């Protein structure tokens, strides 16, 4: 979507300016943005022509690679077209295709953050320098309200914190907090907690993927993958239709073991693209929850309860938008608290780095499901 691409491009500049944006020293050091460039394979699983149109509108740099360029840049890739993604149990999974991909789109400014946990610590120190205070291991058990307005929160130890504004940024617990506040019924788009796995495998022999690989979006096999520390490859799913989705009703209680079925599905798919991929006997990776909306586009919005705001449904595809999401939410909260009717007249926010205009209404809780969404982790 236009606003999704504009927000992402604006978000990129926060990471390029991370030291100045954080504005304070962190005893642990600062997170680093790895500007590796991302490969998006031209497949039937990606509407790359629409994406290129949006890149041109927004001003995102890109390179249009033909098949020969793709082969030269990534000699470890099998460039056959495996579409559509299939379960490993499907006999057709093992068939040798004859058709080849037509190429790829490469965005040189794209990349990933080397240490997400460190970046969160950087933001903690920045917030504390501005007077923010963190209460760790403190459970919210109630959102207090009266006469259609939020009053604050109550913690499990009975401590009450009064606040004229409360913002739900609870990640996979976002739907739990919205139900506490009594605002879920007034939302056309809602959030749920979705279990996701990212697996780690070694780089193929004679190729250092950590140094020479690129984050890659491969709709043809239904996966994404990127370089990982230790010359490994991190691989996740782009949630093709043939895969099961496990939504979790209780975010505090779910299986955190790697699923052998999901491991085999993701790693074997990657091995179709990278035939020399070593497949370890022992699965490795991360299992956790995503906070996703019905169309995988986040909600940055007010609610039906005055003073209660939401930055939710953000998992998987909004991490690098943290800076610009904070800016958008601050503008939205200030406008609404001053009397602006955001539901009737959606706020338009100007990016501090790019000057691009982002329509905050695109992330409304009241929107219809957006047919232009990827409906995946790609955002």
Which key terms come to mind for this protein?
9 helices; 379 residues; 25% helix; 24% strand; alpha+beta
Could you give the topology of this structure?
Blueprint: H1 2-16, H2 18-22, E1 33-34, E2 38-41, H3 48-58, E3 63-66, H4 67-73, E4 103-107, E5 112-113, H5 116-129, E6 140-146, E7 149-155, E8 160-162, E9 166-168, H6 174-181, E10 191-202, H7 209-212, E11 216-218, E12 223-228, E13 232-237, E14 247-248, H8 260-273, E15 285-293, E16 299-302, E17 308-312, H9 322-337, E18 348-350, E19 357-359
Parallel strand pairs: 2-11, 9-17
Antiparallel strand pairs: 1-5, 2-4, 3-4, 6-7, 7-8, 10-13, 10-14, 10-15, 11-12, 12-13, 16-17, 18-19
Helix pairs in contact: 1-3, 1-9
In short:
The chain has helices at 2-16, 18-22, 48-58, 67-73, 116-129, 174-181, 209-212, 260-273, 322-337, and strands at 33-34, 38-41, 63-66, 103-107, 112-113, 140-146, 149-155, 160-162, 166-168, 191-202, 216-218, 223-228, 232-237, 247-248, 285-293, 299-302, 308-312, 348-350, 357-359. The protein has 379 residues and is an alpha+beta fold.
